[in-house]
Amino acid sequence: MFAFVSSITPGPNNIMLTSSGIWFGFRRSIPHMLGITIGFGVLLAICAAGIGALVMAVPAAQFALRVAGSGYLLYLAWQLRDMTFDGQAEEARQPMGFMAAAAFQFCNPKAWVMAITGSSAFLPQGMPVPLAITLYCLIFCAVNLPCISVWTGAGALLRRYLSQPLWRKVFCAVMVALTVYSALAMWW
């Protein structure tokens, strides 16, 4: 349940995937989704091994995570402010790739909170630690991928409605507001 609730609720990854679904469709967003899931799985393993608690105990590391995460989200909000569907401009755009999405997990404060909280509360007991970490990461990732796929699919479905200028402007305003909120929420 923790994996489901933390994966399906809005956050930086889900906002980015909704946007990717709109811009590029579901199929072209698959590397982005897989990068999030695999990158988050690596982050889970690191946190379950105890390194996450050590990183979070260093104030400079927390600050760096917040700066990097909120900076990227503000950049993304800037990109979302005026969504137009021009065929030539779309061909020049590229979806976030696997490696970039995986690397983003390490500057995503929501991912760190999910990984540290989940690792400290739900790591299987009564088995060798490497096996417990592997099992925990596999289960969490198996729940995470379908959850984030819902957001990408929603974006892909919304695309057809966003051809109308009014709905596109409303949607852009909502997405920018949610993205800016996510960037600011990292500082609370």
Automatic annotation (TrEMBL):
<keyword id="KW-1003">Cell membrane</keyword>
<keyword id="KW-1133">Transmembrane helix</keyword>
<keyword id="KW-0472">Membrane</keyword>
<dbReference type="GO" id="GO:0015171">
    <property type="term" value="F:amino acid transmembrane transporter activity"/>
</dbReference>
<dbReference type="GO" id="GO:0005886">
    <property type="term" value="C:plasma membrane"/>
</dbReference>
<feature type="transmembrane region" description="Helical">
    <location>
        <begin position="170"/>
        <end position="187"/>
    </location>
</feature>
<feature type="transmembrane region" description="Helical">
    <location>
        <begin position="33"/>
        <end position="54"/>
    </location>
</feature>
<dbReference type="GO" id="GO:0033228">
    <property type="term" value="P:cysteine export across plasma membrane"/>
</dbReference>
<dbReference type="Pfam" id="PF01810">
    <property type="entry name" value="LysE"/>
</dbReference>
<feature type="transmembrane region" description="Helical">
    <location>
        <begin position="60"/>
        <end position="78"/>
    </location>
</feature>
<feature type="transmembrane region" description="Helical">
    <location>
        <begin position="133"/>
        <end position="158"/>
    </location>
</feature>
<keyword id="KW-0812">Transmembrane</keyword>
<dbReference type="InterPro" id="IPR001123">
    <property type="entry name" value="LeuE-type"/>
</dbReference>
<protein>
    <submittedName>
        <fullName>LysE family translocator</fullName>
    </submittedName>
</protein>
